[in-house]
Structure formats: structure tokens, C-alpha cells
Specification:
The protein has 13 helices and no strands. With 244 residues, it is an all-alpha fold. α6 packs parallel to α8 and α7 packs antiparallel against α8. The termini are far apart.
Length: 244
């Protein structure tokens, strides 16, 4: 994630505009003294910058949704930083500053989520990955608080993604073991051929190469690969059960 390693991040913030751009520019600008520049950046560069800034901003808003940021939620954010993204010390400091600044700024959760949705509207799979990370944080303390539930339900509509995703994820986090039917978003009474068609579509949509080509930050491809494998394993389990 070299995009954060210099004042270039602040310039991207300026070119993005909106609450996400202001957040990027404010954090990096205050540290590097960056000023507005005429440099232009590719759509992928801007989308990657927006994805990470919005992720940690929304994580901050979601963590504080129930009135306070819990120890478990802080640990979950640190786990994302360390395990999922493999940030170096400089990148970690940046992520924490984004989190801390967004936690108490005047923008709302909906402001950040809406801008990200407008930027990545053609990349619904990236928004699904984003949503699953938010859900994981919300459930990190073992409880889905009312305000967290409200924001996550609202996010489905902001992102215009599968309306069943909230209930599917909630069930997955509540169950001791993963339910393959919920992973694929199918029901047990469906014919195998119908399930296979849904599986093939999801497999194509979440293939890591597809997401890379659409500009998903490389640090999040690991999450996409995990979902890709989960989809394959879910179909394998269903197929085995159906043909017995």
C-alpha cells in the first residue's frame, strides 16, 4: 500500500473530494505538510485510496455506534491491520490516525459509505468484501448492538447489494459451524442444477483475478481469496449431500 508512504496520499485526497478526500488530505497533509497539486491519478489509485480511508472511517463510526469503542473492537481493528493487511509501521500509524480522526469528526457513517458506494458502484464485489469486514468488526464483541444493526442494514441499501446479505452474515456469525447454504445464498429445497448455476455465478464474481482487474486493493485480495475458497467448499459440501 505504497500509496500512503508520501504526500501523494494528500494529493489523491484533494482529487477525490468529499468526506473521504478531506479525511485523506487532512491526515496526510497534517503529517507531511502536503499542498494541493496539479498531479492527476488513475481511477484505480483513487478507488484504492478511497477504499482504505472509507474502511477505517466506517470501522470507527461503527465501533462507536453503541456509544463507546470497546476493547474488543479496538483489538479487531488491530487484527485487521496486522493480519489482513500486513501494514508496516508507517501504514499502521496512518490507519490508526484515520480511525481516530473519523471517530469524532462531523461526518456521519452514511456520508463515508455513500461516497464509497458512488465511487465503486460498478464494483459490487468490492463493496461486498467491504461490507463483510464491517460486519466482522460489529460482531467482534459477540453482540450486534441495535445501532450497529441499524447501520449495517442501512448499508445494504446504500451499497445496493444483495438484500439477504445481512441475514446471511448474521446467521453465519451466530452458528457454530458455517452453513454452506447460507454461504451461497441458496435454500435446501432448491434443485442441485439451480444451486450449481448460482455457485458458478458467485465463483466468477469473486474470482480474485476479476477483483484485481476491477481495482480492488491488493491487500484485500486475500479476503477475496478466502471468500472464493469458502464458496467452492460450500458448493462441494452441498453437492456431496445432494447426490448421496
Amino acid at each position: 500500500m505504497s500509496i500512503w508512504n508520501s504526500a501523494i496520499g494528500a494529493m489523491i485526497g484533494f482529487s477525490l473530494g468529499g468526506p473521504i478526500g478531506a479525511l485523506i488530505g487532512g491526515v496526510i497533509g497534517s503529517r507531511f505538510g502536503a499542498k494541493r497539486a496539479s498531479t492527476t491519478f488513475s481511477a484505480n489509485q483513487q478507488h484504492q485510496a478511497a477504499f482504505f480511508a472509507a474502511l477505517f472511517a466506517c470501522l470507527a463510526k461503527l465501533a462507536k455506534a453503541d456509544g463507546k469503542v470497546s476493547k474488543e473492537e479496538i483489538e479487531a481493528v488491530d487484527r485487521f491491520i496486522e493480519e489482513r493487511f500486513k501494514f508496516d509501521s508507517e501504514q499502521r500509524r496512518f490507519a490508526i490516525e484515520i480511525f481516530n480522526r473519523a471517530k469524532d469528526d462531523k461526518n456521519t457513517y452514511e456520508d463515508y459509505a455513500s461516497q464509497l458506494s458512488s465511487l465503486l458502484g460498478r464494483n459490487k464485489n468490492a463493496l461486498v468484501v467491504f461490507y463483510e469486514l464491517l460486519f466482522e468488526l460489529a460482531m467482534s464483541d459477540g453482540v450486534l448492538h441495535d445501532r450497529e444493526k441499524e447501520l449495517l442494514e442501512k448499508t445494504v441499501h446504500i451499497f445496493n447489494i444483495d438484500p439477504d446479505i445481512f441475514n446471511n452474515l448474521r446467521s453465519q456469525f451466530s452458528e457454530a459451524t458455517s452453513n454452506p447454504y447460507r454461504v451461497l445464498g441458496v435454500t435446501e429445497d432448491m434443485e442441485l442444477e439451480e444451486i450449481k448455476n448460482i455457485y458458478r455465478r458467485k465463483r466468477k464474481e469473486f474470482h480474485p483475478d476479476t477483483l484485481v482487474s476491477k481495482g480492488l486493493p491488493e491487500e484485500l485480495i486475500k479476503k477475496a481469496r478466502e471468500k472464493f475458497i469458502e464458496i467452492q467448499e460450500a458448493y462441494g459440501a452441498i453437492e456431496k449431500k445432494k447426490i448421496q
